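Input record (one chain):
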Amino acid sequence: MRVRVGVPLALAACLLAAAQASTARAEDNLIWTGKASEGLISLSYAPLDPAKAPLFLLSCFDAMGIAVLDLRREIAGAKPGDALTIALSAGDAKAEVKGEAARDDAGMTFAEASEIAVKPVLEVLRQAGPATVTAGGASVSLSDEGRAQAVERFTKDCPLE
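The corresponding structure, as predicted from the sequence alone:
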């Protein structure tokens, strides 16, 4: 008696691979979020898992009158303190923010800009379609799905220009 298991095993392997890919994509899904609590207002594009760092973070420290922009993408070859320009673009809108390379506790070198003007950044983020953010050799595309609502909330809560 000969048993043919090739097709069912191949089908099972394909289904397992698809399920694993779907789970990996769900973990990597990024969403726009606007939050406000006790003097800190934030606009982030981050993984669904709140334990993971956001890819893009605009923070408004209302009480101190300071806004900070982080792009959490590895900046190859940059050392903490190196001057960087964070460039944002969407549609016809463009903005540049002077910043520097910083290193987090995990050893990733990323771009950070302190005491920035919020208005030019928000002008870019208000545009329809994906936004592109670059710093050093790193470049990311930020979806516009949910961005308008998160930007509106941030704008309502952050009085900084």
